[in-house]
Design goal:
Blueprint: H1 2-7, H2 9-25, E1 32-37, E2 43-48, H3 54-71, H4 76-101, H5 108-134
Antiparallel strand pairs: 1-2
Amino acid sequence: MKTDKLGWLVPALIVAANAIAILVCWHSLPEMLQAHFDLQGNASGSMPRGTLLLYPAAGAVICGIAYGISRLTSKRLIRKGLVFLASGIALVIFSSTMVSLTKGTMPIFMLAEPVILLAALAAFVICLIKARKKG
């Protein structure tokens, strides 16, 4: 059970890194941030910089919900799958933060989001399948 709890350190660190990145850049950010960039770095929308604070908060809530669900099951593989899923979602949110902080100049963050999410979902599904086979 102790190793299960250590696994939750990964999504917690991702959420913390997200919050730290925002706080480090906070004073240099304009009141309105460009948002929704295309692959050439052109913005198609904007948002108040305070909206960025919702990103790590959303990551923390999602990870907290996944952790709570993991406490309801006795199957180690399902708990492991939830860690993968929560970590992937936290990484996607962190990637969105980085898109905003880099003003869309680094499209790698936008391209990484679907890959990360698909990998996390695949890991979660694999864990569910293995848990079901084990009975």
